[in-house]
Design a protein that fits this description.
By secondary structure, the protein is mostly helical. The chain has one domain: MFS general substrate transporter like domains (Growth Hormone, Chain: A, Up-down Bundle). It contains 15 helices and no strands. The longest helix has 33 residues. The radius of gyration is 20 Å and the shape is globular.
């Protein structure tokens, strides 16, 4: 089957439905498993600073595999790459389920996620085109955030009830994602026949990095999404420590429901971006990025659970409005220059390097005894200033 008829199909084609369903269950498993694994660490009396280490191992797989996963996504049918990646996630969940090291199991899930990401976003440019690409990104983000919402809450609730059942549910959702991938029609490989020699792949990836980072538009997108996701993963761990200090609540469920409020907000923000922002008007998303940092500062000083819910929903809405247009911009420009799979792999390298750096700083701050509230205020301030600098620095035209 050629890619062209797929791109000319209606937005909600069979291909798109299969991608969205697979993405939902894969992301559900990712988010439920994170909170369940954190509960496993808590149950086994690991120190607080080991929690971000778990995520840092996950993130490190993205960085180490970045030169290779983009080529894999472009060298094979992306639906089959997604199925292989979800199978690795399933294996990682089973490792934790059977009582082996949670760090090894979660690293395996990270390897699967690293392989999955270029394929899941790259396939959007093969089954949609033009302005439908922004809408397709909105659907992808909506599916992802709905999965974050339900997966996070389910992970926390199940972890409070029974850890083994919680782990089994995570494995089951990955299994469903593998099956859903089978229903994605086998599209033509975007760039078949590339060299699989390590040195050649590394040179190819470095060349793709140079192309994307030298282009003003794609550099702007890479920086913006890297800052956003680095901040997002740090906020997730900050909530785990902030809730007992600011709200006096010590269960596993409350941090997950607070994360779910961010997810609800991102769905709303992604929907607004799909309607209000086009590839030509991407600058409209920048004020939302600055406001994310401002709202994190305000949130960090709260002591009311209701206010925390509302503010996190606002932060999520601003985040969805900010990141969806940037993703679409990179996919559109990257597909024309280095291939969509390579473009997403370069994006993953930037985003996960930012995550690793921010988590590293966060881990050092917590290990040094920095208060959770003060950490949140400093974190929000730095994020707002970073996005403001990016906004001013970015040229009007690429």
């Amino acid at each position: 089957m050629s890619a062209r008829p797929e791109r000319d199909a209606p937005l909600m084609s069979r291909s798109m439905l299969a991608v969205i369903v697979a993405q939902f269950f894969s992301a559900f498993g990712d988010n439920a498993l994170l909170f369940v694994t954190l509960a496993v660490l808590k149950n086994q009396f690991y120190p607080d600073w080991s929690q971000p280490i778990l995520q840092m191992l996950f993130v490190a797989t993205y960085i180490l595999l970045a030169p290779f996963v983009g080529q894999m996504a472009d060298s094979f049918a992306k639906g089959r790459v997604m199925m292989f990646a979800n199978s690795l996630k399933l294996l990682g969940a089973l490792v934790i389920c059977f009582g082996l090291s949670p760090f090894i199991g979660y690293t395996l899930v990270g390897i699967g996620a690293a392989a999955y990401s270029p394929a899941k976003y790259g396939i959007l440019g093969e089954i949609t085109q033009g302005e439908k690409l922004v809408k397709a990104n909105g659907l992808m983000e909506g599916s992802t955030i709905a999965a974050i919402l339900l997966g996070s809450v389910a992970g926390g609730i199940l972890a409070d009830w029974n850890l083994l059942v919680a782990l089994a549910v995570c494995a089951l959702t990955y299994g469903i994602a593998v099956v859903a991938n089978l229903f994605i029609p086998k599209l033509q490989a975007a760039r078949p026949g590339q060299s699989w020699h390590f040195a050649a792949m590394l040179r190819s990836f470095i060349a793709a990095c140079r192309v994307l980072w030298r282009d003003a538009e794609t550099r702007f997108s890479l920086l913006g999404t890297s800052l956003f996701w680095g901040a997002g993963v740090t906020l997730r761990f900050l909530l785990v420590l902030w809730v007992p200090v600011a709200l006096g609540i010590t269960d596993n469920k409350t941090p997950t429901t607070l994360n779910a409020m961010v997810a609800i907000g991102i769905v709303l923000g992604a929907a607004a971006a799909a309607k209000l922002v086009t590839l030509e008007t991407v600058r409209r998303c920048m004020p939302a990025g600055v406001l994310i940092g401002v709202m994190v500062v305000i949130f960090s000083m709260q002591h009311s659970l209701l206010n925390a819910y509302l503010l996190l929903m606002v932060i999520g809405a601003l985040g969805g409005f900010f990141v969806v247009p940037l993703n679409a911009l990179l996919q559109a420009r990257g597909k024309q220059s280095v291939g969509s799979g390579n473009a997403i792999a370069v994006q993953n390298l930037g985003e996960n390097t930012a995550m690793l750096l921010m988590l590293g700083l966060y881990t050092l701050a917590i290990k040094a005894g920095a208060p959770a509230v003060a950490t949140g205020i400093g974190f929000g301030t730095l994020f707002a200033l970073s996005i403001a600098v990016l906004w001013v620095w970015r040229p009007s035209k690429g």
